[in-house]
Amino acid sequence: MNPAMRVLVTGGAGFIGANFLNLLVPRHPEHEFINVDSLTYAGNLESLAKVQDSANYHFERVDITDADAVNAVFEKHRPDWVIHFAAESHVDRSIEGPKQFIRTNIEGTFNLLEAARHLWGENREGKVFHHVSTDEVYGSLGAEGFFTEETAYDPSSPYSAAKASSDHLVRAWHRTFGLPVKITNCSNNYGPLQFPEKLIPVMILNAQERKKLPIYGEGLNVRDWLYVTDHCEAIWTVIEKGKIGETYNIGGHNEKTNIEVVDALCTLVAEETGASADELLALKHFVKDRPGHDMRYAIDASKIERDCGWTPKETFETGMRKTVKWYLENTSWIENVRSGEYQKWIETNYSDRQ
Ligand code: NAD
Ligand code: DAU
Q1: Which-ligand-closest: CA of 353?
Q2: Of 1, 118, 252, 353, whose CB is crowded by the most CB atoms within 10 A?
Q3: What pLDDT is stored for residue 353 in this prediction?
Q4: What is the pLDDT of residue 339?
Q5: Is the C-beta atom of 42 inside 6 A of ligand 1?
């Protein structure tokens, strides 16, 4: 077991960060967890109701693009481990307005790297800066093959280009300054607490409300789906067992076309609500494609499996059923995130795709 650590988690009020804290805060009362989040539209303290009163959990509202505020929070809490989730994460929003992606994902990461470098100086023993990244940095695959840790970077969207830049900064801070970093690049996550702008929650909620199910292009794009807590466990495993300076790919061995995903969700929503599956399937609606839409992602996760002993626990079927049930049961969380700002986004993203 590791000695008691101060663990600074950025973006802990977002989808993956909140699932991570809900899992790890109760499991590790010996560690202090400090959640640093600016609470953008994607950040929601309601997602942390389970842990908010825990003695080993603290929240700091800090914008990572504000270098002084980042330095101050590092000075105050003096973290041993930094787990960096905070980002602008939605590809369609990066096409509508790329600037904030450059600020948060690149400048924000730079501020955190500098704060860690100055805090730790030469005392790097036991310290870790863990950067949470995406498989989208590798670009698009053809019909065959997998992304490995050696695949060349070839990002397509402003989001993935900004994440690729942040990965390069993290590696440069390791090579140049000796910062003890680790990087993970993960495939598409799904599960509870995901903001209803991403494919899975959009489809579940639209099906439940008998609204059209907007499928981009021909719906043949392939994603490799991973249940969110499997991603969280993988990150923790890399923090505990991964090597400094290394990159680990994380994936679910669950390649599906978007049409296959939507069909599966319609069937599950029908089973869970008693609706007719045919009625829900008839809501499928092909709309204008996303510009620069990557065709296929698939992860070779053999390095993390071999070196750290991680494997995903959920199958596509078990994970999707849990997710559908969660969205059907958590109506007040959903009502609260679907504020006026949310309605504006739905209008912006979908009105000119019809
Ligand atoms: P999310 O959009 O749900 O949450 C992002 C969180 O970061 C929010 O709590 C938000 O308030 C916070 N944040 C944004 N800008 C900030 C700023 N300037 N300062 C402080 N906090 C800020 O994102 P997510 O889906 O949970 O993704 C988390 C991380 O995992 C991201 O780095 C993303 O690139 C990466 N990732 C996501 C997936 C996926 O499928 N969602 C897959 C692989 C990697
Ligand atoms: O691969 C990891 C990435 O997965 C993460 O780095 C990103 O943060 C995360 O947002 C996700 O990116 P995607 O663009 O793959 O996810 P999204 O849910 O937006 O879309 C999944 C697929 O579904 C993609 O091919 C686009 C399509 N799509 C999406 C929406 C929102 C639709 O067909 N219709 C939709 O309404």
Answers
A1: 2
A2: 252
A3: 86
A4: 81
A5: yes
The confidence score (pLDDT) of residue 341 equals 83
Task: Report the DSSP beta bridge partners of residue 81.
Answer: 7, 128
Residue 62 and residue 73: Cα distance in Å, rounded?
A: 8
Confirm whether pTM is higher than 0.85.
yes
Q: Is the CB of 7 under 6 A from ligand 1?
A: no
Atom 19 of ligand 2, nearest CA residue: 198
Kindly give the pairing relationship between strand 81-84 and strand 57-61: unpaired
Distance CA 165, CA 171 (A): 10
Q: Cα separation of 45 and 335, whole Å?
A: 14
Could you tell me if residue 198 is inside a domain?
no
- The CATH number of the domain where 145 resides is what? 3.40.50.720
State the residue range of the domain holding 108: 6-192+224-255+292-313+342-353
Q: Catalytic annotation on 233?
A: no
Residues of the chain with confidence (pLDDT) below 50 = none
> Active site residue: 63, 92, 136, 233, which one?
136
For ligand 2, the distance from its centroid to the CA atom of residue 188, given in whole angstroms, is 7
For ligand 1, atom 4: residue with the closest CA = 14
Q: Which of 19, 11, 9 is nearest to 228 (CA)?
A: 19
